[in-house]
Amino acid sequence: MKKILLLSAFCLFTLISQSQSSIAAARSSTINSTVIIKGVVINGAEMGTIRYIQDNVAGISAFSSTLSSLNRGDSVQISGVLTEYKNLLEISTTTTNPAPITFTNLGMGITQTPSVITTPQFNEAVEGRLIKFIGCTFSAAGTFSTGTNYTVNTSAGTFVARVTSSLSSLFSTAIPTGTVDIVGIGSQFCSSPTSGCTTGYQLALRDINDITNSSIGIREYNEMQGNFSLYPNPVSGSIHIYSHDIKSFEIEILDITGKILRPKKINEHEGTDVTGLAPGIYFMKIYTENKIPILKKFIKE
Prior knowledge:
The protein is mainly beta.
């Protein structure tokens, strides 16, 4: 009887120790430990072998050729060894832990909505998750290729985007020249230190549908555009307004979401000092004598 009780206790301990964890809990587990997670797949074959899995709180990558049958939107339970590759946390098979990844496809899951973030929020907290940046411009021109980092500018700073596979519909397509919104997956590639790196975060781009015309909360008005110009533009110090027929007006400075950064004031002949703004895209809202507001875009270097 004592042996039976001991065996039962051991089996119960085994079941508890190998029970399913939330992805957030799995991410805090010890490297080389076995984890079991459940979530929704947020990419498919367009990113090659890797699959990213997300639940309501966190995300994580899983890397194995056995996962090639999983598609975006599949609900899945995955069991495997927790590893790190260039500081990207993932469930993977390694030479040290060759145990294969196992999974169960549970059918269609709940579609994951990307979290809108700004560049200062691009860190470990969003690694493995579907995220979105608004009001973006690419520094590079030409066409997308694989194995290339692309610098993307926003009003809050810059970040790096990357096409990870030639299977993506972005491969060989034109890099946008205007302002766009971008959805992708938070990833990381940092060789040193081998663990605990806080840099190297990359937005892994999925396909062409994840880059859309910007949905920023403001736009430039067509009315009276010819009456105003801003110079210099791009600007690093003071920006001036030129109008050939309107002399008196007030101005506000807004970011790309429409938030007022500088309250309304009378335009000054010496220009408006913008040295305190971070590099990025901004708008000057100009109120004329008849109170019709005009929006003009400028770039802070």
